[in-house]
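G.,

No rush on this.
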Amino acid sequence: MTTPSLFRHRNFSLLFGADTISQVGTQVSNLALPLVAVLALHASEFETGLLAAAQTAAFLLVGLPAGVWVDRMPRRRILVSADLVRAVLLASVPLAWWFGGLSLLQLYIVALGSGLATVFFDVAYQSYLPSLVGRDRLMDGNAKLEIVRNSAQIAGPAVGGGLIQLLTAPIAVVLDAVSFLGSALMLGRIDATEQVPDRSERRGLLKEIGEGLRYVASHRILRLIAASTALANLANGMMAAVEMIFLTRVIGLSPGAIGVLFSVVSVGGLTGAALVGPMSRRVGSARIIWLSIMVTTPFTALVPLTEPGWRISLFAIGAFVQSIGVVLYNVGQVTFRQSVTPERMLGRMNATMRFLVWGTLPLGGLAGGLLGEQFGARATLWVVVGITVLAVVPPVLSPLRTMRDLPPAPDPDGPGTEGQAAGEAAAEVPLIGEAATGIPVTERPVPADDPASGPAPDPAPDGDPGPARDDAGPRPGPAGDS
C-alpha cells in the first residue's frame, strides 16, 4: 500500500510553505549582509569575521536554556514569535541605510539579535516536526524540508545577487524581513495539538539543562555526531569570515556572479536531498550518515585552488559535491537524533546538540578573520580543508559503521534510557551477512510495516524525502542550517 504524501497533511503543508517563504528570504540576506559590510561599509577581514561570529554567538549564549523553554512552552508560539523578531530586526537595516545612519555596530546588533531568535526557532522547529508527522515519517518530512532549503539556496543567491546590483545590498535585506512575516502568518495557521508539561513537573532551569547534557553525553553515537558536526562548523565559521573577501577581492567576482555561483553550488544540496530516499533504502538510513561525508569531503580541496577564469569552476565543483554529502549527512543525523529521543526530551537534546555544534561557529568566525588578516583568504581556506577532513573521523570510527538502519523509536513519554539503549545496541551488533567493514554482502528489504526500521520502502510519489534545517556541514559556498 502506497503511503499518502505528506503534502496531503495540512499542518505539514503549512510548515513546508512557511519554511519555503523564509528560506528564500534568508538566502538573500546570507548574501546581502556580508556584502553590506564589505561593499557599503568597507569592512576588513577581521570585521567580517566579527559579523560571522555575531550571527552565531547566540548558540553559546542561550543555546542550553532555550531547550528547556522549548520543552516547557507551546512550540508553535515560539516559532511565530521568533519569525516576528527577525522581521523587525532585519527591517532596521534598510531603514538605517536610507537615513544615512547604517554602521557596522548596527549590523553586529542585528546579527546577534537575529541569532538569538534563530536559536529558539531552530530548536523548536526540530522538536516540533515529530509531533506533526509522527516518528515513522521523519525521514520523509526531514528530506522534503531539506529540498526546500536547497531549492532556496539555488534561487535565493541568484535573486539576491541581482537585487543587490539593482537596488544595493541594504535594500535587498527587505525581502528577508517580508519573508519572515509571511512565514509567521503560515505557522500561525497550524492547528496541531501540543502537549505542554504542567508547571508542577518543572524541576528548575539548571537541573533540566543538566538532564539534556547528560542525555547527549551518555549516548555514544550522539557524542560522536556532536564532535563531527562541531569540527565541521568550526570550518564553516572560518569559511564565512573570508569567503566574500576571497571571491570579491582575490577572484574579482561581482555580486551578481557570486549569486550565480552559489546557486550552482546549491544544486548539489538539492541533488543530495533527492538522493536521500534511494540512498537510505540501498545502503541504509543509518549508514548514509558516515558514508556521505567520507566520500564527498575530499572534493573540498578544490575550493582554495580557485583562480580567475576557468578555474572558478573548481570552486563550483568542490562545493557542489560537498553539498551533496552535507545534505545526506544532515538528513541522516537529524533523523537519528529525533528517532532515539523521547518526546519530552526533544527540546533539550536538540538545544544541547545545537549548543555544542553551533557554538564553534563564532569561534571559527573569529579564527578565520584573524587568519585571513595575517595570512590571507586563500591560506585560511586551506586550514578549512584540513579541519573539514578531521570532521569525517568521528562518524567513520563510530558504531554507526555496523548499523544499517535507524533504531526503533523510544517510548514517547519515557525518560530516554530505552531509546538510547536501542540505539546503542543496534550500533554495537553487526548485521547478519555483513563483512567486517560493515558493507552489506546482500541487500535485505526493509519491512514496509516497520516504521522504526527507517524510511518507507516507497515514499510519497511526489518526490524523494529529505530534512530539517540542519546542523552543519562544511561550508564551501552558502551555509545551511542544520
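When you get to it, here's the other one too:
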Amino acid sequence: MSLYEALALATLVGIGGFAFYLYRQDTRPSTPGGPKSEPPPGRSMFGRAPQAPPRDDTRH
C-alpha cells in the first residue's frame, strides 16, 4: 500500500467517523428538562406555513 493510498484510507475513515458522530448526536435522546431541538407541533422544521390542499379542478 502506497503512502497516498494510506492517506486516502485514513481520510475516508476520518470522514466516516465524523459523519457517524454527527448521526449519533441527532439520534441520541435528549435529557429530560433539557432544551428541545425539535420545532413545536404543527410547525414545519423549515419554517414554512402549511399550504391549503389543492382544490379539485373539474375544468378540462
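The radius of gyration is 23 Å. The helical segments are 3-27.

Enjoy the weekend,
O.
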